[in-house]
Amino acid sequence: MKNVVITGSSSGFGYLTTLTLARRGYKVWASMRNPESKNAHKRDELLSIAKKEDLVIEVIELDVTQDDSVKKAIDQVVQADGKVDTLINNAGVMFVGITEAYSMEQAKEQFEINLYGPMRTINAVLPHMRSAKDGLIINVTSLAGRLSFPYFSIYCASKHALESYSESLSYELAPFGIEVSINEPGPFGTGLLYSGPKEEQLEVLSAYGEHKEVPAAMLKNFEGFFSTEEAPDPQMVADDIARVVESPKGSRSRRMVSGIDYGTVDLNNKVAPIQESLIKDSLQMGHLLSVN
Predict the structure, then answer these.
(1) How high is the pLDDT of residue 192?
(2) What residues are labeled active site?
(3) Which candidate, 36, 57, 54, 32, places its Cα nearest to that of 46?
């Protein structure tokens, strides 16, 4: 039985992907913060469904911002299964507001979760994947990792960074039989819009006058859309991720957009040949374009 480690499994895409892959026959290590306290009800909910449906789900503690927590969780998986087949980096948070009014500490916190978190988990699993000469890493980014939205500046920056890191890493890992795929969800009603803190620098915020209300109005518009029949179902993301996991090695797309795309699919299609030419022609490293 192949195993999958998913971060941020207590809610949203992580929760849905946990159940989707478990129902397709995978052993899922559903990781989350505080499964013994704050998220105990989510742990119990997943384990109850697993028992009822005869699924193989293990819930483990993993805080992507803490080196020791990540190492302990991945060590637990390897001790139990001897390997890590697939890692899905889903945990994330979204800061939305007046960019100037966010403190530097808040900006660092955004990157700590959205960029350095995936880097920690990837560094923890890579020795095992390289030893097996096999493995799949899926990083959940966002359309905001390809496009830029006002008032989402810090979030966009963290996701753009994760996109670049993921693509560069995919070339480096190809000779070891390890694939890196990027999932880019559009807007979905998962609660992510309200997951980040408010701006700390209140004096700066007040200097924006009536403009400081614009981010909240944007969120209200999104919230209104999510309550309509036209709103995409978050299950779409879980299904798209499962499709990548189940695709044959060597045939997986580097990027997959889920839901409303705002032209990102077209952007990806136009940029891909330029990126491939850079690797193949300019750098003369065409061997890094395919997984062995």
Answers:
(1) 85
(2) 155
(3) 57
